[in-house]
Amino acid sequence: MALADRPRPIPLHQPHFKGNELDYLKHCLEMGAVSSTGTYIDQFRQALKDFTGAKHVVLTMNGTAALHLSLLLAGVHPHDEVLVPSATFIGTCNAIRYCQATPHFVDIDGNSLSVDAEKLAAYLAEIAHVKGDVCYNKNTGFVIRALLVMHTYGHPVDLAALQKICAKYHIQLIEDAAEALGSYYQGQHVGRFGALSMFSFNGNKIITTGGGGAIVTDNDELGERAQHLSTTAKIPHEWNFQHTEVGFNYRMPNINAAIGLAQLEQLPKILARKRQLAEQYLQAFEHLEEIEFVQEPSYAQSNYWLNAFKLAEPDVNLRDTILAATHEAGIATRPLWQLAHRTEMYADCPRMDLTQSEQLAASLIAIPSSPFSLV
Ligand SMILES: *Cc1c(COP(=O)(O)O)cnc(C)c1O
Fold first, then answer.
1. CB under 6 Å to ligand 1: residues?
2. 115-142 per-position pLDDT tens digit
3. N or C: the chain end with fewer CB closer than 10 Å?
């Protein structure tokens, strides 16, 4: 089966460095260009623009920093509410808190693993009140400023449906596409549908820069603001230090961009292998009635960053038995993240009914998904 030829233990996800990574890194060290200046920053940025089709790409030191800046630039203010799935990596919610705003949890669809558009529309019809071009939560009185969607394991959300809802309620759409480089919605790369979107290049993502991230946007003003704010709000000048506001040091260093460029060159090969691995898993699990392999939604092409299956019936005990048995056998598996509304930090945040998120958490198991074995 899919993993039969792999030596144990089999990790959940391993990076793959069989391209120009070492050559580009060596070049950085020889040039002394390891930090905020160097040619790889521009090259990687341009290559990402070409790959995604986005008009502006701003490289950052990690994905969470990219999320933080994206939310600020989308106009998220203290006390605002940001609609976000409870079933997401905790960093998504933390970035909202960095803006002193409040996560407002929405449910996901058990099949796409991402925000349930129909359920969200029904919920907003009940609790949202639009005055002028601002959307208020009738229950709390606070502004609902944005919807931060996340493409779980690389499977795109139904972006067109969510764009429509956001337009109706004057809510900004932002994509957490951290896991979804190489995923397409109706033929267009994800990250092009929100006002701003971001990717992560952490070590476990589909390509890595060690640590790193990127903000993408097609909006000229937001693109320039993102670049400016990520660079301590410094006016570019050969020797002068002039800063226009309190900015951030969120830039990606040149050595990380060098690895990123080499990795991006390998991405088509990685994507092909990911698809092949998903196909192998699908075949291996096809005859098992107790589990269902997670496949890309019909409207999208997924990068299949992380493969997963669901138990036919949510069952935490069975889930944990399988997690323990696979670990015992040297096969790394993972449950879904702890649901954000179940954490101490976010337990009191506003939320809709989260039944599908709870059911998914009790039934999902992520399985080894490295495109290539290291050894
Ligand atoms: C990885 C990830 C992030 C954060 O990226 P970092 O680069 O680790 O800061 C944010 N959201 C999601 C959904 C992620 O998977």
1. 62-64, 88-89, 91-92, 150, 176, 178-179, 200, 202, 213
2. 999 999 999 999 999 999 999 999 999 9
3. C
